[in-house]
Write a structure and sequence with these properties.
The structure is a single chain. The chain is of the alpha/beta class and about 325 residues long. The chain has two domains: about 130 residues, Nucleotidyltransferase, domain 5 (2-Layer Sandwich); about 160 residues, Nucleotidyltransferase, domain 5, CATH 3.30.420.40. The protein is about 45% helix and about 20% strand. The mean pLDDT is about 95.
């Protein structure tokens, strides 16, 4: 069987990334230009600045990715890009660039769902992983519990009704005075504290999530008692939020009678969450997977991988492809 090389482009938020992936699982290059230092001074991502920076660097990043992969444009079999969800201006830069490459090179174009890209990151780290499995997608914009029926077939079992867990991490960090990005800062500070502060946990009859209650509770606690131990507050937040993830995952495992669980998304890099899911592995005799750290946050390798599996089943786009900022999984 002929090897298939997919050039992936990711520009949904504040990382400009281009990658070349062979046969969906072998990363030949994965160049990431991060804008964290640029947006840090504003306490979060400024969409207009993010878009402008994507325009400035995308050609350079593409050339670096091809050079690192030791390939030329003509060696590429398909161009995959993130079509959504994300910041519309940022997405449009990647989509427009991918469309131009597709037209100029006469190569197939594959629009990829960013969330499905996060799932595919597990295929790169774990070459043996195949559907069916359960996936907990936890990122700045999403908290989804998904039944991965096949490489391009997904069933949402539960999702957040308000804040995504990553959004909650960043808001809690801001409230207690930690710098952007807040997730890694909370993870680090929590190791110095104890989970000794009782915080609300929200559950529903189905497998949905809600993190607004715990976020508001921390805001009120910090406001009423500015001298509260911040390390304990971080540890208690991590403990409580992770409990909600674990409990719904347990219910889904029993409901589907499934023995494979994967984590995906930026928050899956959190050390405490990983530790608790590994405890779940022992408790319920399931196998837990998660991507290596560099593949947890936004990157083009995961987009190329997801693009490969869509390309195989004929899910290709034409030059009318547009950015869809509120794209849902399976869309």
């Amino acid at each position: 069987m002929k090897d298939i090389y997919v050039l992936g482009i990711e520009s949904s938020c504040d990382e400009t990334s281009v990658s070349v992936v062979k046969n969906g699982r072998e990363v030949l290059s994965n160049v990431i230009n991060s804008q964290i230092k640029i947006h840090k001074q504003f306490g979060g991502v400024v969409p207009e600045i993010a878009s402008r920076n994507h325009v400035d660097v995308i050609s350079q990043v593409t050339n670096e990715a091809l050079k690192e992969a030791n390939l030329k444009f003509e060696d590429i079999d398909a161009i995959a890009c993130t079509k959504g969800p994300g910041l519309v201006g940022a997405l449009l830069v990647g989509v427009s660039y991918a469309k131009a490459l597709s037209f100029a090179l006469n190569k197939p174009l594959v629009g990829v769902n960013h969330i499905e890209g996060h799932i595919a990151a597990n295929y790169i780290t774990h070459k043996e992983l195949k559907p069916q499995f359960l996936c907990m997608i936890i990122s700045g914009g999403h908290t989804h519990l998904v039944n991965i029926k096949d490489y391009t077939e997904f069933e949402i079992l539960g999702k957040t009704r308000d804040d995504a867990i990553g959004e909650a991490f960043d808001k809690v960090a801001r409230v207690i005075g930690l710098e952007y990005p807040g997730g890694p800062k909370i993870d680090k500070l929590a190791k110095e504290g104890k989970a000794n502060i009782q915080l609300p946990q929200t559950y529903f009859e189905n497998l949905d999530f809600s993190f607004s209650g715990i976020k508001t509770a921390i805001l009120n606690l910090n406001h009423k008692n500015p001298d509260i131990n911040k390390a304990d507050l971080c540890a208690s937040f991590e403990y409580t939020a992770t409990n909600m993830l674990i409990e719904n995952t347990k219910k889904a495992i029993k409901k589907l009678n499934i023995d494979k669980v994967a984590l995906a998304g930026g928050v899956s890099a959190n050390s405490y969450i990983r530790e608790q899911f590994l405890n779940l592995e022992k408790e319920l005799n399931v196998k837990v997977y998660y991507p290596e750290i560099t593949l947890c946050t936004d990157n083009a390798a995961m987009i190329a991988s997801a693009g490969y599996y869509n390309y195989l089943v004929g899910n290709v786009s034409d030059l009318t492809l547009n950015a869809i900022p509120n794209l849902k999984i399976g869309g």
